């Protein structure tokens, strides 16, 4: 979902940062003064309606106070990059059907920088790959980061795993799924345990293949 140049009103920010059941460093008052949460359904509907394929018959009809996932503050000298909050609620169709809804909203000051919605069991969120292309396997970013931290170039990883450089490039690009044997080879090259790499690669099912 494209979030560029989308700003949040003061009322929406107040509703997103209303956490009556949460104690956190830096809060001005506990419990906080009530705020108007009814501004959130129109905001969520506006974001969802920006999707060309969204069925406008479905609307967010109800929300509850959110829970912070990350808070923009300098508590203990650590500056968070932004605030991210999870807001539960309900969506309803014009025919009376309803589904559970939860939005994950990340923002810095009044700028919306991340939005993900889960409606029923379906997750809607920003993509990494261009339209019409499959999303990369999550292992890609993790492998790339682990190799960079250890200073292992693609050629060295290919040599250590006895794989072609094209295979390693495809793994790092998310175009090749890791399998248990490849995970074991990568673990040895990274100096990590097979179990840890299996978990990172999403292969933590006890398989010994």
Question: How does the overall form come out from the CA principal axes?
Answer: elongated
- Rg over CA atoms: 22 Å
Strand content: 15-25%
The averaged pLDDT comes out at 89
Residue runs with pLDDT of under 50 for 5 or more positions: none
| Helix/sheet category | alpha+beta
Largest sheet: 6 strands, antiparallel
How far is it from the N-terminal to the C-terminal residue, by CA? 38 Å
Topology as H/E string? Answer: HHEEEEEEHHHHH
Total of helices: 7
Helix content: 25-40%
- Total E-strand runs: 6
Gist of the model:
The chain is an alpha+beta fold and 209 residues long.
Polypeptide structure, described:
The protein is of the alpha+beta class and 209 residues long. Helix content is 30%, strand content 20%. The protein is built from seven helices and six strands; from the N terminus they run ααββββββααααα. It has helices at residues 10-16, 40-49, 139-150, 154-161, 165-172, 180-190, 194-200; strands at 59-63, 67-70, 83-92, 98-108, 111-119, 122-124. Strands 1, 2, 3, 4, 5 and 6 form a six-stranded antiparallel sheet that branches. A hairpin with a 2-residue loop joins β4 and β5. The model has no long low-confidence stretch (mean pLDDT 89).
